[in-house]
Amino acid sequence: MVVLSMDVCKRPRIIISAAVTIDGRIATKAGDSKISSDIDMVRLHKLRASIDAILVGRNTMMHDDPLLTVRYTTGKNPIRIILDPCGEIPSNSQILTTSSAVPTILVLTNNASVKDQRRLADFNVKIIHTGTERINLKWLVTELFEKYNIKTVLVEGGGRTNWSFIKEDIFDEIILTVSPHIAGDGINLIHGDGFAQIHEGPSLHLKSAQTQGDEIVLHYTRHTTPHSDDELNCHKI
Ligand SMILES: NC(=O)c1ccc[n+]([C@@H]2O[C@H](COP(=O)([O-])OP(=O)(O)OC[C@H]3O[C@@H](n4cnc5c(N)ncnc54)[C@H](OP(=O)(O)O)[C@@H]3O)[C@@H](O)[C@H]2O)c1
Questions:
Q1: Which of 17, 22, 60 for a ligand 1 pocket mutation test, highest count of atoms within 8 Å of Cβ?
Q2: Residues 128-161: pLDDT tens digits?
Q3: Cα–Cα dist 105/37, whole Å
Q4: What CATH fold (topology level) applies to the domain 13-232?
């Protein structure tokens, strides 16, 4: 039996996933993020079918109007989680119009207006109110684990959301598809203040590197990531 000490909190295993150009962008400056191949979409959708939840930030939801479902293969749709501090998700978005069929969680802060909260209450979505002006990701992931029984989360960007998880040191793996394109200026894979010194950021272990046509899929893990499924359910945060 595993005995947990008081300073150990439970949270899901968190995997950051993205397709990047060879210069490390996940989108051009105009917001075009169609970077990877159809083969990679099959790989990504198999990964989606294997996890409990998929999470994206507000800008990705607004720019891409994603479905965040499993379509390139067969399998169960993960729960969709949208960081939407102001409750801006459009009523005609693909996420809301499919919310009766695909489980969906919206994460709102005090910045969401009462009008938007009422509008969103008409949809078949769970709403997590953080009660604050910024989303506290450490609190959120513990809530997802303990109240929603979510054991694995795939963070699918965008760059600011990825940076938030890196900055807060709440991630376990990064899976990147490097595609043979160049964007120049654009959205970085990790888009934020960054670290002043390399040693201040996390250092990772390359678990695998697989070529896929002209692409390469890189799978990095934390040096400290435990390997048994039981251990993966418990992380110090
Ligand atoms: N190639 C790929 O694999 C891939 C994957 C996903 C997305 N993308 C691209 O990435 C671009 C969007 O990326 P982005 O960096 O602009 O935005 P983003 O990460 O999608 O969304 C960032 C926004 O989420 C909200 N947010 C609230 N609390 C947050 C928290 N604690 N942590 C993080 N975010 C929080 C913030 O909204 P407020 O500012 O309103 O507070 C923040 O500005 C799009 O062009 C999309 O196409 C590419």
A1: 60
A2: 999 888 999 999 999 999 999 999 999 999 999 9
A3: 29
A4: Dihydrofolate Reductase, subunit A (3.40.430)
